[in-house]
Design goal:
Helices cover 3% and strands 53% of the residues. The protein is mostly beta strands and 503 residues long. Strands 1, 34, 35, 36 and 37 form a five-stranded antiparallel sheet that branches. It starts with 22 loop residues before the first strand and ends with a strand.
Length: 503
């Protein structure tokens, strides 16, 4: 996924872009912008590009003009030193910063509204507080926004005494509270999992529930949980898996057609090899199943998808990265072949161990937060002597009935030691084509641009190259900030900077 799944989910009807990059402009770098910083590309506000940066308790936002010249870097002095989680929602003229900090045994969730010059438009407002026990997890607040950003939800989850306790706070785009609800249910954290928390344009809240038959097994129970914006009750819908086992469950909201789309890889037996793709579509308006289909992956596709080994193992290391909804209710699904090898360790790579982790790790200190889609710092873990492999991409075109109309393989072969931020890919829509951008050389200075047309034709477009030597691109951490603009983080020597690419 540009951000493991769901971050680049624009409709395939955006204004067409020129296929080759017209210009690349790099920001300068501050001496504080070492590779140890965490960052978040906030977006474009009043034609200025804003990037949040953090190292330890130093929180700041850099403001760039359209040529990536630094206009100013503002230190966020009002944020307490023990702030450990920050999220952003950007609009054309302002942005919200939602941050969480701890004082004693009390957690505080705050929101500040700021303009394009990073000036507070009002004093920060308290959203919620929580008193937590000693030695308990303090990262309990998460933020999600709807696709059109007209609805924002802050929710907190606490799991104690075998209970799943969720509080949801739904706001409009002026951060006025619309509804506040609580959901409490029995919970076994060893075999049960809640995931894919998503917010519809109308404020509907939806997420998935899956259950394993035993610890570290595949899931054999799947459900979808929904809550309408002005209702108190949460509704649960069980999904028939026909005695099959699933993993890597991904949910996508189709706002245009009022549907919820769920995809997962499935096996015929517990912890077996991937047999195919499961697609389930829920009709929100009629409150019933619209489509449910198991699609077997045939040998010809397996032969093209694998690097080596037996055909039956071909998709065992593929993970769903993107689901891009089309106007007619169909969608494009992309999955990527990913493994890693920790040398000097007795722990062999296993997709089920990987999926047991809530966060996808990278050795450089970033982890992917599936709730917000941003990369954040993760301290205390250091993976040494690990080689990361990001290989082929499989792309499925699936119609509104859940039937696969065509499938294609984009060939790529990427690996790197102890750092995977330069690997994987990002996507951008260009008229009726979906472009896949990924580094194609060992020095990470040339980006390959391959696109897929509506009929499944793969096109090789001109590569994107840095006009200056020494800049290394990080495509998977990029963010689209306009119909024809992409911000790609880059490394120059030991510093982080940002490249703006106009297509």
């Amino acid at each position: 996924m540009n951000r493991l799944f769901g971050i680049l989910s624009a409709l395939l009807c955006f204004v067409p872009l020129v296929l080759s990059a017209q210009s690349i402009k790099f920001s300068d770098f501050d001496r504080e912008d070492s590779k140890e910083i965490s960052f978040d590309i906030i977006g474009k506000v009043n034609n200025k590009i804003l990037v949040y940066k953090n190292i330890r308790s130093n929180h700041r936002i850099s403001v760039y003009d359209n040529d990536m010249n630094t206009l100013q870097t503002v230190k966020l002095d009002f944020i307490p030193d023990n702030t450990f989680n920050i999220d952003f929602v950007a609009y054309p003229g302002y942005f919200y910063m939602i941050y969480q900090f701890q004082k004693g045994r009390v957690l505080y969730c705050m929101v500040a509204r700021m303009d394009d010059n990073v000036k507070k438009m009002s004093e920060p407002v308290l959203v919620d507080t929580t008193q937590i026990p000693v030695m308990s997890d303090n990262k309990i607040y998460s933020m999600i926004s709807s696709e059109d950003k007209q609805r924002i939800m802050i929710f907190k989850i606490q799991t104690r005494s075998q209970k799943f306790n969720m509080l949801t706070l739904l706001f409009d785009n002026q951060f006025k509270l619309i509804s506040k609800n609580r959901h409490i249910t029995d919970y076994n954290d060893r075999i049960e999992n809640y995931d894919n928390f998503s917010l519809g344009n109308d404020g509907s809240f939806v997420f998935t529930f899956d259950k394993q038959s035993g610890n570290r097994d595949n899931s054999n129970t799947l459900g979808i949980i929904t809550k309408e914006p002005l209702q108190n009750a949460f509704s649960y819908q069980n999904i028939d898996l026909e005695e099959k086992y699933i993993d890597d469950v991904r949910l996508k909201i189709d706002n245009l057609n009022s549907r919820y789309i769920i995809n997962a890889f499935y096996c015929k037996k517990n912890r077996g090899s991937i047999h195919g793709l499961f697609t389930y579509i829920w009709d929100k308006e009629k409150r019933k199943t619209y489509a449910s289909r198991f699609t077997e992956l045939d040998d010809s596709l397996r032969d093209e998808a694998k690097r080596d080994g037996l055909l039956r193992y071909a998709f065992d290391n593929y993970f769903i990265r993107n689901i891009v909804v089309k106007k007619d209710g169909g969608f494009i699904l992309a999955a990527e072949d990913f493994t890693n090898d920790t040398r000097g360790s007795n722990n062999n790579w296993n997709r089920y161990d990987y999926l047991d982790n809530r966060f996808s790790m990278s050795s450089s200190g970033y982890y992917y937060d599936p709730y917000s889609g941003y990369y954040r710092p993760f301290s205390g873990i250091n993976y040494q002597n690990t080689r990361y492999y990001y290989e082929n991409i499989v792309v499925f075109n699936i119609n509104k009935e859940g039937k696969t109309e065509w499938s294609k393989i984009i060939q790529k072969d990427q690996f790197n030691d102890n750092d995977d931020n330069f690997l994987s890919y990002s996507t951008i829509t260009s008229g009726g084509e979906l472009h896949f951008l990924f580094n194609s050389d060992k020095k990470f200075q040339v980006i390959s641009d391959q696109s897929i047309t509506p009929d499944g034709t793969i096109k090789r477009n001109p590569t994107i190259k840095s006009p200056q030597r020494g800049y290394e691109f990080m495509p998977k951490l990029s963010k689209q900030v306009g119909a024809n603009q992409l911000i790609i983080p880059s490394a120059y020597r030991n510093y982080i900077c940002f490249a703006k690419i106009d297509f």
